[in-house]
Design goal:
The chain has 416 residues and is an alpha+beta fold. Helix content is 53%, strand content 8%. The chain folds into three domains: 19-139, no CATH class; 164-225 and 325-412, no CATH class; 227-312, no CATH class. The chain is elongated and about 85 Å long.
Length: 416
Amino acid sequence: MGHGRGAVAGVEGWQAPSAVERRLYGARMRGDWSAYYDLVARADLFMMQSRAAVDANRGTSRFHPYWNPQTGTYCLAVYTAGMLPPPVPDPVYRSYSLGWFASVWEAADPPYLVVNPGSPCEGVLPAGPEGRELWRRHYAPVERRGLARDAVHTLEIGGPLQGVVAFGLAVGAHVPVRNGQFWNAMAYHGDGYTAESSRLKEWWGVTTREDWLDVQDRLLRAGMVSSSWQFVLQLRRGMALDFAGPVDADHWRTAAAHFLRLRAEEAARPTPTPDGVSPGRVPTAAEVESEIDGVQRLIGRITRYEARFRADGVLPERGYVRTIEAWDYGRASGMARWGLASRLCSLQEAEAAVVRAGRLVHANYRSWEDFSAAYVLARCLHFDEEQFGEWYETALRVHRVLTTDPASPWRTLPWA
C-alpha cells in the first residue's frame, strides 16, 4: 500500500514527545500499518493554516501542500499534538480527524497525507480512492478521537516536568486532565486555534488582547470569586482560629447573621467627608433579612458539599475548606495557556502568569489536596447547584486521578 514510501529510518534511542508518538513509532518500526492507522484514527491531527484566512472565514480550511523529494510529489502535512511547534502569531494550527480528511479530500488534492513529516514516527498515507477508503474503515469504529479524558497525559519532551513553571501548570491541571490534554504543555495549542478562541469567547467573553489582559489580571487577584463565598469562608476561618477547632454550622449561621446586622447598622451611620457629613443609607429590614437568608442558605450548601467531600475522600475527616481563591488561581493558570492558543498573548506572558498562579497557590494552601478541595468546592457552587451530578462527578474523578496516579504532577512535584 506504499505506507512507508519516503518514511525516515528508525532512530535508535529516539525519545517521543508523548505516548501518542511513541506508539506511532512502535507500530511503524514493527511494520504494523493496521495499528498505525488505528492510532492515527484516534489522534487529533493538526494542520497549519493562515491566521488571516481563518479569521476571515472560520468555516473554511485550506490545504497547503509541500514538495516531498522522497515521494517526488506534493504532500499534505499533519501533526499529532506532541509534534507541534511553539505557538507564534502566524501561522496557526487547527485540529481535524482522519475521518474529516477522508470526507473532504478531492481527486486534485495531493496523493499523500503525511503524519509528522521528517520524524521517526512519520507515516506516509496514500490518499487515492483506495487509501481514503482505508482511512474511513479505520476511523469508523472510533467512538472519539484524541487522548483519553479524565487521565493524566504528560508531554515528556518539550514540556516542563519540574520547577516553578511545571508547578504553575499543575495548578491548572484540573481542566487538561478532564479534557484529555497535556497538563504540562506550556507552548499550548489545546484543541487548535479556532476551537480555543471560540471557547474563550463563549465562556469568558474574551475576544481581544485587552479582554484577556483584564480577565487574567482579575483571576490572579482572585477578583472573580464570589464575594459571598469569600465572606462566609473567611468568617468561619476566623471563628475556627478563635475556638481552635471546627465550627458548628448553626453557630456559623448565627455569627453570619450577627455580622450582617452589625454591618447594616454601620452603613446607616453618617460619615464625615471633606464637604460635611454624608448621611448613611439605611437598608430596610427586609433587605437585611434577605441577605441573611441568602448567606445562611449558602452556608448550608457548603456544609453539605463538605460532608460529601469527606465521604468521597476529597476532604479528610473533620476537614473543611478554608479559602476559595483556588478557583481563580487554577483558572488563571488555564487562562494563560488559553490566551496563548488564541494568540492573545506571547509565550513569555503566558509563562509569567502561570508562574505567578503557582506562587499564589503555594502561599495560600498547604498541599495539592488542600488546594483541590477548594477548587472543587467553588466549581460545584458555580455549576452544580447541589445536584451532585455530572459537574460534581467529573470534578471528583479528576481529583482522584490527580491525587492518586503515579504520573500525576501532584505526585511528582514536591509541595515544599
